[in-house]
Amino acid sequence: MACNNDCANCKEKCDIKDLRENPNKYSSIKKVIGVVSGKGGVGKSLVTSLLATGLRRDGFEIGILDADITGPSIPKIFNVSGEVLGNEYGLLPSEAKSGIKIMSSNLLLPNETDPVVWRGPIIAGLVRQFWTDVIWKDVDYLLVDMPPGTGDVPLTVFQSIGVDGIIIVTSPQELVSMIVQKAVNMAKMMNIPVLGIVENMSYVECPNCKDKIYAFGDSHVDEVAGLYDIDTVSKLPINPDVARLCDKGSIEEVDINYIVNNLGNLLEKLETLPLAINNICVPVNDGILSSLEDADTLIIYQTIRQMVIKEVYKIVDNLDLDARLDLLKPLKANVILSSDGAKYDGFNCHKVSGEVYDAVIEYLTRKPEKKPKVLKRENVVKDK
Ligand SMILES: Nc1ncnc2c1ncn2[C@@H]1O[C@H](COP(=O)(O)OP(=O)(O)OP(=O)(O)O)[C@@H](O)[C@H]1O
Ligand SMILES: [Mg+2]
After folding, report:
1. What is d(CA 280, CA 270) in angstroms, rounded to the nearest whole number?
2. What mean pLDDT is predicted for residues 151-166?
3. CATH 3.40.50.10860 is the classification of domain 15-271
4. Among 68, 116, 246, which residue has the most ligand 1 atoms within 8 Å of its CB, making it the best to mutate?
5. CB of 46 shorter than 6 A to ligand 1
6. What average pLDDT does this structure show over 300-320?
7. Ligand 1 contact via 221 beta carbon (within 6 Å)
């Protein structure tokens, strides 16, 4: 059967499926970071919460999508409860004290202690809905607290949400096993960068002499990170005060030094993560989409992920084609959407039609193009 690029409704087995979905149209999310672990109980939710708190204190708008549907702990750590409100446009996340937005299955249950007894596909579907149906509004970082392991739900998150990178949380015991490597390999298969690795419960600091006690033996996190070219490694000590704050639902009151001293390098990595910026040039004539040659004005849309954040207008009716192309370079335009789709060196050129703004949005929310299949070396025909 010929490919119609409608992966969601296609039953063919192929390795180019892309099931990414658009977030709710009232959400504008700049970066999505997945927090994963090989197994449960290693401190994934705590690390998610500390990173959220650290980023929030640095002035960012933060959302936490609790994808751990059967073991949700984010609402408790931030002391949010109660019914989630919704309207015809979607569901509204709850807000913690410091303004961190939270969506979790626990907020949808009549009683907090009700168990979630749904099967895998339903659970995965709910996670997808937290992306498509929740009105996150403006969020700089959406942190996704994944369920442990490399099963169905993490796979759905990777496939349906455009994750910009993942952070792996481990414990010292876990590092000597294959579990971490499985998480790294999963990210690799999905083409998602591993931004950092956190060894949680790495050591305990003696309250008197400040010596570090490695209760679980020597740390191996640096070796593992080296093995996989992961350049950001954090070691988070066991801290009873932090555990207490989690239990009380007051994680936002954590001593900021605990975050900065132990996760500071990871925060810096996240805060300097380059945004997927496109500067899209659309040539128009009399306000109507045209070719680059026929245009009287070039509109340059500066976009981040799926949002237009700035529009610049350049009048070009007295410029020849070369001068028009030269004008685009300092504006860092990398895409040209025109009525004829003419190709120009150094630009990603596409033919579009209809209203200018609609064409830009359609381009930004398009499904990624099919990637060419990579041939294995032995299958490459050599030209003699
Ligand atoms: N560095 C730490 N210092 C003190 N307590 C910690 C630390 N890390 C985790 N804990 C405590 O250990 C428990 C488990 O941590 P957490 O819930 O973050 O793990 P998890 O990986 O999200 O678990 P699950 O797989 O069940 O979702 C929590 O009570 C948490 O407060
Ligand atoms: Mg958890």
Report:
1. 25
2. 81
3. no
4. 246
5. yes
6. 87
7. no
238 close to ligand 1 (CB < 6 Angstrom)? yes
pLDDT at 327 over 60: yes
Give the C-alpha separation, 74 to 7, whole Å.
33
Cα–Cα distance between 294 and 158 in angstroms, integer? 42
Read off the pLDDT band of 258 (50, 70, 90). Answer: very high
- The first and second tokens of residue 192, run together, are 């998602």
Helix (H, G, I), strand (E, B) or coil at 171: coil
Residue recorded with tokens 């006690």: 213
Task: Give me ligand 2 centre to Cα 17, in Å.
Answer: 29
Give the length of the chain.
384
Find the ligand nearest to 200 CA. 1
Which amino acid is residue 84, in one-letter code? V
Helix residue ranges, H only, the chain: 44-57, 74-77, 120-132, 152-160, 172-175, 179-189, 221-227, 240-248, 256-271, 321-328, 356-364
Residue nearest to atom 3 of ligand 1 (CA): 238
Is the C-beta atom of 40 inside 6 A of ligand 1? yes
How far apart, in whole angstroms, are the C-alpha atoms of residue 200 and residue 263?
11
CB-count burial class (<10 Å; 0-12, 13-18, 19+) for 149:
middle
Q: Which residues contact 300 (CB under 8 A, 6 or more apart)?
A: 279, 280, 281, 282, 311, 312, 313, 314, 328, 331, 333
The whole-number average pLDDT for the span 183-210 is: 87
Residues 337-374: tens digit of each pLDDT: 999 999 998 888 999 999 999 999 888 876 544 444 44
The answer to whether the beta carbons of residues 221 and 202 sit under 8 Å apart is: yes
Ligand 1 binding pocket includes 201 (Cβ within 6 Å): yes
Determine the distance separating the centroid of ligand 2 and the alpha carbon of 142, expressed in angstroms: 16
CATH code of the region 277-364: 3.30.420.130
The least confident of 14-23, 110-119, 254-263, 354-363 is 14-23
Enumerate the domain spans of the chain: 15-271, 277-364
Q: Which residue has the higher pLDDT, 6 or 271?
A: 271
